[in-house]
Amino acid sequence: MKRQITFFSALLFSFLLQPEEVISFTFLGDHLCRHDDAVALLQFKEIFSISAYASCDHSYPKTTHWKADTDCCNWDGVTCHNLTGRVIGLDLSCGQLQGVIHPNSTLFHLSHLRCLNLTFNNFTGSRISHRFGSLKSLTHLNLSCSNFEGEVVSEISHLSNLISLDLSDNELLRYEPSNFDAMLQNLTHLRELSLWLVNISSELRVNFSSSLTYLDLSYTKIRGNLPSNVFHLPNMRVLRLGGNENLTISLPKLNCSISDSLRQLNLSRTNFSAALPDLIGCIGSLNSLDLGFYYLSYLNLSLNFLTGTIDQLPITPSLEYLDVSSNSLQGPIPSSICKASLLKILDLSTNNLSGPIPQCLGNFSQQLSLRFLKLNDNQLQGSVPRSLAHCEDLELLDLGNNEIDDKFPVWLEILSNLEVLILRSNYLSGTFPTTFSKGNSLCGFLS
Ligand SMILES: *[C@@H]1O[C@H](CO)[C@@H](O)[C@H](O)[C@H]1NC(C)=O
Ligand SMILES: *[C@@H]1O[C@H](CO)[C@@H](O)[C@H](O)[C@H]1NC(C)=O
Ligand SMILES: *[C@@H]1O[C@H](CO)[C@@H](O)[C@H](O)[C@H]1NC(C)=O
Ligand SMILES: *[C@@H]1O[C@H](CO)[C@@H](O)[C@H](O)[C@H]1NC(C)=O
Ligand SMILES: *[C@@H]1O[C@H](CO)[C@@H](O)[C@H](O)[C@H]1NC(C)=O
Ligand SMILES: *[C@@H]1O[C@H](CO)[C@@H](O)[C@H](O)[C@H]1NC(C)=O
Ligand SMILES: *[C@@H]1O[C@H](CO)[C@@H](O)[C@H](O)[C@H]1NC(C)=O
Ligand SMILES: *[C@@H]1O[C@H](CO)[C@@H](O)[C@H](O)[C@H]1NC(C)=O
Ligand SMILES: *[C@@H]1O[C@H](CO)[C@@H](O)[C@H](O)[C@H]1NC(C)=O
Ligand SMILES: *[C@@H]1O[C@H](CO)[C@@H](O)[C@H](O)[C@H]1NC(C)=O
Ligand SMILES: *[C@@H]1O[C@H](CO)[C@@H](O)[C@H](O)[C@H]1NC(C)=O
Ligand SMILES: *[C@@H]1O[C@H](CO)[C@@H](O)[C@H](O)[C@H]1NC(C)=O
C-alpha cells in the first residue's frame, strides 16, 4: 500500500518534470532511488581510497556500505527527495575519503543536489572546477578542510540559490579578485559565507549582501578598507575578520550603527586604530546597553591599535568572551566589568592598565563564571583580590609583569581547576608553598 502511494505520487510528480527526465524514470523494485543516481554515486565512490585522515571526532568510512542492490536513499550520507527519488543531499563529511575529484567525476551527474557536504576528507590534487557551477540547485555547499587547491572558478557565482557556502581551511585555495567580487555580487541569497584561510589577497570592493548572517574572512589576506556597510548589515550575527593585518578599519569613515543582531565580532590582528569612544558610537550607546538591547557575547579586538579606557568598551551583560589584549588601553579596570556576569574569558593583557584589580571579580553577589583571566603585562597595583578564591572554574590566571605588591597568594590552592598560574615579575613576598600543587594539576607556575 505504502509503495503504491509512493508510486502514484511519483507518477503525479512526473508531469512536472522535463520530458527527458520522465523517460529515464525507472523503478528498481522497492527502491525509491533513481537508477542513474545510484550509478553516479557508486562510480563516485570508486575513485576514493579509504584513509583515516580526518581530524574529526567521529570519522568513519561512510561509503563502504553503499551496495548496488540496495536502495541508495538508505545509504549513509545520502538524502533523496521523497517523491521523485532524486538525490538531493550528500553529506560525506568526515568520511575518510582520499582521492582526486576531477571535472569528469560522476558527482556532477547529481544535478538535483541541494546540500553537498564533503568537509574533512583528503581531496589533495582536487580543484573546485567549473563543474561545481552546474549543480544549480545547491543551497548548501560545504567543502571546508578537504585539501582543495587552485583557483575558485567563476562558475561558483552561477549558484544563485546558495544560502550557505563554506570553503574554509583549504589553504591552497585562492580567489581571482574579480571572481571574488562577482561571487559577492551575484550570490544575493547567501546567509553564511566562511572562507577563513582561503587566499583572497585583494581589496574588498563590493558591499556585503544584507542577507548575510555569518561571515568569516579571517586570515584571507584581504586588505584595503572595509565596505562601508559592514557594521550595519541588519541580519549579521557573526562577523570574523581577524588575522588580516592589512585590512584597515577606520571608524570615522564607516557608518557603523551596528545592528542589534550582532553576537560575535572578531577584528583581532587587523589594522584597526581607533579611540574607543568612536567604537561606542558604533556598537551602541551606554543607554541602549542599560536597556538590555545588546546581546553581544563575543568580542575580540586584540592585537590592534586601540586607545581609550576599559569603561568605554561595550561591556554588556551578555558578554562571555572579551579579548582586548595587545592594544594601548589605559586607566583602571572598572568594577563595571563585573556587570558581565557570564564572562568566561577575560583577556586585558599587554596594555597600559593601572590601578588595583577590582574586588568584584569573585564576589559572591556578582561572581563571574571566569575560566581564563589574563591581566598580565600591565601596570596593575595593589593586592591579588581575595575574592578570586570564589572563582571555582578558574583554569588559567596570569597576572605576570605587573606591580602587584602582596604576599604570595597561598589561598589560591583552593581552586581545584587551576592549571596555569603565572605571577612572575611582581612584588610578591613569602615563599612558594610545597603543598600548593598537590590538589591542582598546575603545569605552568612561575613566581
Ligand atoms: C592526503 O592525500 C595525499 C595523496 O592524495 C597524500 O600524499 C597525503 O599524505 C594525504 N594527507 C594526509 C594527512 O593523510
Ligand atoms: C516529504 O518531505 C517533506 C519535507 O521535506 C514532508 O513535509 C512530507 O510530509 C514528505 N512526504 C512524504 C510522502 O513522506
Ligand atoms: C577523468 O579525468 C582524469 C584526469 O583528466 C583522467 O585521469 C580519468 O581517466 C578520467 N576518468 C574517466 C572515467 O574518464
Ligand atoms: C554539512 O554541511 C552542512 C552545510 O554547510 C551543514 O548544515 C551540516 O550540518 C554539515 N554536516 C555535518 C555532519 O556537520
Ligand atoms: C550571475 O548569475 C547569473 C545567473 O546565474 C549568471 O548568468 C551570471 O553569469 C552571473 N555573473 C557572474 C559574474 O558570474
Ligand atoms: C561545514 O561542515 C562543518 C563540519 O560538519 C561544520 O562545522 C560547519 O559549520 C559547516 N559549515 C557551514 C557554513 O555550515
Ligand atoms: C596568494 O595569492 C596571491 C595572489 O594570487 C599570490 O601572489 C600569493 O603567492 C598567494 N599566497 C599563498 C600563500 O599562496
Ligand atoms: C556600498 O553601499 C554604500 C551605501 O551603503 C554606497 O554608498 C556605495 O556606493 C556602495 N558601494 C558599492 C561598490 O556598491
Ligand atoms: C601585508 O602587506 C605586506 C606588505 O605588502 C605583506 O608583506 C604582507 O604579507 C601582508 N600581510 C597580509 C596578511 O596580507
Ligand atoms: C579571532 O581572530 C583571531 C585572529 O587574530 C583568531 O586567532 C581567533 O581564533 C579568532 N577567534 C574566533 C572565535 O574566530
Ligand atoms: C593602517 O591604517 C592606517 C590608517 O589608519 C594607514 O595609514 C596605514 O597605511 C594602514 N597600514 C596598513 C599596513 O594597511
Ligand atoms: C547609517 O546606517 C543606518 C542604519 O542602516 C541608517 O539608518 C542611517 O541613515 C545611516 N546613516 C548615514 C549617514 O548613512
Automatic annotation (TrEMBL):
Report how it sits in the membrane.
Single-pass type I membrane protein
Q: Which keywords has UniProt assigned to this entry? A: Glycoprotein, Leucine-rich repeat, Membrane, Repeat, Signal, Transmembrane, Transmembrane helix
Q: Name one Pfam family in it.
A: LRR_1
* Keyword Ligase (UniProt): no
Domain of life (superkingdom): Eukaryota
| SUPFAM superfamilies attached to this UniProt entry | RNI-like
Q: What is its main location?
A: membrane
Location of this chain's protein in the cell:
Membrane
Claim: Glycoprotein is one of the keywords in the record:
yes
- Which Gene Ontology CC terms are recorded? membrane
- Read off the InterPro entries from this record: Leu-rich_rpt, LRR_dom_sf, LRR_N_plant-typ, RLP23-like
What protein name applies here? Leucine-rich repeat-containing N-terminal plant-type domain-containing protein
